[in-house]
Fold these 3 entries.
Entry 1:
Amino acid sequence: MTRRTHIIGAGIAGLSAALAVTADGDDAVVYEAAPQPGGRCRTLQPSDGFTHDNGTHVLFTANGHAINLLKTIGARSQWFEPEPKGLPLYDGRTGEMQHVGLSPWSWLFSSRRPQGLTLPDLARILRLVLTAKDCPVASIIGKRPIMDSLIEPLTVAVLNTPAAQASSQRLACALRQLLRPGAGRLLVARNGLSEDLIEPAVATLEARGASILTGQRLRTLLTSHERAIGLALTDRTVMLGPDDRVVLALPPFEVARLLPALPVPTIFEPILNVHYRLRGLAHPRFIGFTGMLAQWALIRPTHVSVTVSAADAVIDQNAAEVAVRIWRDIIPALRGLGLEVASDRQPETRVVKEKRATIRQAAEILPQPPLRPLANLALAGDWLGSLPATIESAVMAGEHAASILRHVRGTRSPVPRNRPMTTEDAA
Ligand SMILES: Cc1cc2nc3c(=O)[nH]c(=O)nc-3n(C[C@H](O)[C@H](O)[C@H](O)COP(=O)(O)OP(=O)(O)OC[C@H]3O[C@@H](n4cnc5c(N)ncnc54)[C@H](O)[C@@H]3O)c2cc1C
């Protein structure tokens, strides 16, 4: 009887788990509730042709696991560095544009240094990087100009949590990674998240014989004697073989619904994205903002995507009004990059609100379940562990789940007699 790994959730964590399982030559099936794989990394393709991602996702060359995943699926060349000369940073209060290096080493050059960065600031950033005790980022940096011009936007970009609450230790993990030579290059998908990440991952899995079944929500997990024994999905029930294993690559609220005894984080932070359909730039550009509601924008050939992270203050506001406000804010910055935009005419606009974009990564001990709560079941997802909840942590969690199940022993005890009516036994 073939040993099969059943992976629930086709987000980055689930796809990474499936890639790790199939790399070992094992059999994997992925079940996804949504009509398309990708989870929080996806491209929206409405019938009117205005195709855009849910939100702009950036990777750093420091994200070794994510970069290796891109190599595995043959998509590394589809992620490129839009701003090799330093990130253009537009200050909405002064109207000034500067270029800032993303690697702390580049701050040795005054042309790449964040505005107003002083030696005492560097000492505080160093304290943050070396911090042993977790505390809010803002409590280490204090009320200094660098807070507005660098630390707050950086914290919100990495942790999707305001610096007043955000965990210094999680941010320090990211900063330590950026310190490695060559690690601070910012990458974006050339065409979009589905084309440059999700579709190549699915194609690689299918070439290895794995199946990805969409529209299959795990409604109930059937368990017996501390083992998963069956999966009650949207239109079928799959009973597990004695050697079968399960990865729940799901957000924490779904894990808590399926296994209510497990402790999981319960507080989330939203991200709001606004996409403006216009003739952009043939070569995509990326720009950061300070002193404005939005934190960054990606200018693609057909549209401009603007991101507001830690968007609690606006997530429940009227979407059209928020989009108007952001459009007015960003016009001078877009013109600064050479884009011809009329101030009296706002382009066609789409707003995507992700209310539970990530867990809130505050300076407190977040509830964490055991990574293998049942003998043949492991958890995966960006929210597990103490790293920033990003693509990188989702990849790591998926790979880790596959590795902790690798040596799990099967059971010879028979499957219970009272099996549900619709069954599709695992091979
Ligand atoms: C707008 C936005 C911008 C972001 N920007 C960045 C960025 O710049 N850089 C970065 O690294 N990260 C970014 N992130 C975070 C990144 O998207 C996530 O960390 C990552 O996608 C999480 O992957 P995951 O597999 O852990 O979870 P998910 O993507 O949430 O995957 C879980 C999957 O499980 C499915 N599912 C749920 N319940 C069930 C069920 N019962 N049965 C079957 N399937 C189910 C869901 O539909 C989903 O596909 C951003 C997130 C958002 C929302």
Entry 2:
Amino acid sequence: MTIKRLFFVVFAGLLALAPCFARNYDADIIVVGSGLGGHAATYSALENGATVIWVEKNPVLGGSTAIATGTFPAAGTTMQKERGIEDSNELFIQDLNRIGHNKADQNILRAFVEKATSVWEWFVKGGFQVDTKRGPFIDPVHSAYSVPRTYVPSPNKSSMYTDFLYAKMEPFKSKLTIRLNTKAESLVVEKGRVSGVLVVSDQGTEVLRAKAVILATGGYGSNRDMIKRYSPKYSEVMTVTLPFATGDGHRMAAAVGADLVNMDYICAYFGGMPKAPGQYAIGFGDLTSGAADGWKGEIWVNQRGERFINEDDGDEDPREMALNEQPDLENFIIFDQGMVDFNKRFPIGGFEKRLEENGYAVKKADTIEELCKAFGLPVAQVKREIAAVNGDHSAGKTDRFGKKPAIGFTKGPYYGILNRGTIFMTQGGIRTDIGMRVLDKNGRWIPGLYAAGEAQGTSQWGGLGMAGGTGNAPPLVFGMEAGKNAVNEAKLIK
Ligand SMILES: Cc1cc2nc3c(=O)[nH]c(=O)nc-3n(C[C@H](O)[C@H](O)[C@H](O)COP(=O)(O)OP(=O)(O)OC[C@H]3O[C@@H](n4cnc5c(N)ncnc54)[C@H](O)[C@@H]3O)c2cc1C
């Protein structure tokens, strides 16, 4: 572009913004949502000199940090160097692409990886309480990264990040208005730019006006209608997301022309245990996630009584993908007393207690027939699978899934755990560029509108899969980025 043309474009842009110059704004920036993304965006906007109205529909700040743990991955950190761990952004990108099946937006993925290290270092240098005994480590719960690059706060709760950020806002509090119990309903667009939010609270319906708006509204894991519409296969799949995860940001952004991407992606994760039809809890990561690798012998069967995966495979991802293909995303984990004895070193946490408390998903029986009957599983097929495993174990053979059974079934009683794939976060979201500016279907910015966190859809940086810590770290990294860039845009508007 020639200098003359550049001047013309800038001049024309300023002219387009002119109608906004004379207007009154309630604040420079409005941030909608107060999870990790909302905290990071609010802090960053304040730190960059803006006044902020922070809108949260819940009575408290924090969003999903109320239940999530605090893993954060980053490459090339001081903590890694101190421990002699060699790592690089390229290796991190490779790992994320492997786990995400190469379906991430490569620009967003790279932007995340390149910024994650400095954000993590910023937390650490600022006195964030890190569990230095544990990290950096290879997170056993998800498909492993090539090197230890996961960190957790002490205690391991994601609210540690929001508490930290909230405390850092203290010097800027005179510039911050927090509106709890206030639901953003729609975005206000004037002269082609987003310039406010229509909100509803006990004060009624009002329009809050600002020079830019950041949507940090999280995912839509608790919005059945959206899941049915975009990923019908998951219509009945359990979710552990909190009730507020209703995709409001997705809806508001789409209404002003934003492109929603990968809305058909959902990847349910292990650990959902029904307590009764329609009710569930999280449990038994010991036998489902990567942490299960130490435990040997158990078989997983689907509703048809068929095994479908190498239960001992060290990589979490194939198991996760296979689980997503089973009827109702159900797997029944079956083992016997011989295996409990064999795996003494890896006791299953609280099995007896869960047996008492949740007879629906956790069962014990004297015979395999009784166990299958209790779960409604086809006895003959389960017995065929057991006979095959026993045969392979005796013969030292590797089975059709690549598993060489370390132990067969030897003695009762028999145990079973019903596990269902469960939605922890949603992959589809509001398309942004690497500056978190929301894009329309033609890839053009929607002036004044930003999105950060799960509202962007985890697929933008994580593709289709679940890499450890990529629920937490990107909202923090991109929240910071959105705050800074929104302020820069706001500075152009009088
Ligand atoms: C049980 C569980 C465990 C998890 N563990 C991990 C983990 O160990 N590691 C990891 O990396 N990830 C984990 N995750 C995922 C991670 O917690 C989320 O990806 C992350 O917290 C999302 O942050 P966010 O700020 O984008 O959204 P959220 O934290 O969901 O915040 C969104 C906020 O927006 C508010 N909001 C929404 N709509 C409106 C509206 N219309 N008006 C006003 N406010 C609105 C909501 O009330 C909420 O406060 C876990 C998730 C769950 C459910």
Entry 3:
Amino acid sequence: MKDLVDRLLAGDAIAAARVMSIVENGRPEATEFMHALFPHTGGGYRIGVTGPPGVGKSTLVDKLALKFRSAGSKIGIIGVDPTSPFSGGAILGDRIRMADVATDPDVFIRSMASRGSRGGLATTARQVADVLDAFGKDVIIIETVGVGQVELDIAEVSDTTIVVLVPAFGDAVQAMKAGLMEIGDLFVVNKADHDGADRAVLEIESILQLKAETDWETLVLCTIATEAGGIDELFEAIGRHRVFLETHALLQDRRRRRIESEVRTLVETRLRQELWGPGGYGELSSYVDLVVDGEETPVSAARRILEAKGLVGVFGGNEI
Ligand SMILES: Nc1nc2c(ncn2[C@@H]2O[C@H](COP(=O)(O)OP(=O)(O)OP(=O)(O)O)[C@@H](O)[C@H]2O)c(=O)[nH]1
Ligand SMILES: [Mg+2]
């Protein structure tokens, strides 16, 4: 393990990919790797890019990554697709859509799917982002596909969250219903070469008025990702949001929240293994039999299980 960690820290991409596979597949040694890598994290700025399918997120990420590269940053890109059963280093489509940066050695692209991520896709994405951070990436861009909880959870992983929409009538209303309005620090109307981009911007801005007021005034920008149109402005807006977070001490706040969520996940995962790990469900089943036979209630059965694990103090006192 130490060898793999040392190689990763020295910039070996093959070692980094192997560690990411271990983390993604939830292998038991993953926690040891996370432990070893943690002291080397904290330097990577995390940008979440989210929005409905097909709005041009990958194209936008490609152009944005190119822009960050020209500013000298090393980039990690994580493509999260909860609808795909395939995982591992190379979802071909992402590589094609990120053609501008796919062959750059200072850009590391990782595609993740639902397979194997037992702790939840957002948790796994956070850990993979940590690996990329330790690997020395200055900027880590996380793209999520689809509308749903994973997309919302991913905002917890990011320092700046960008919601991408297209100029389709009612799109902004749908996005609001899906909870996207709450999580976006920046909004992008991509495919601004299509009709209705200006109207979409107004629609989003009027919905944003309903949002609780914060010090950060959410920006709405137009892009034409295929032509890199509006990318300079987006790059600049990300920089402004970053400065805002830094000057209001919110960057440390977000990092703290991520750590809290990491610790909580680790404890809960470990407890779940402890309770229902190998043989655990058999044990559960024998307690369920006792309840069915009228010898225990669900509450007393639960208490006896906890008691057997030495965890009784955490459940309902001792009165049951
Ligand atoms: N006209 C136009 N087409 C665009 C623009 N940006 C992206 N596209 C096209 O939209 C299609 C989808 O782009 P992607 O970048 O794959 O979109 P995505 O949001 O990553 O898609 P998923 O990851 O599948 O949700 C591709 O055919 C792009 O070439 C744009 O600004 N204008
Ligand atoms: Mg995509």
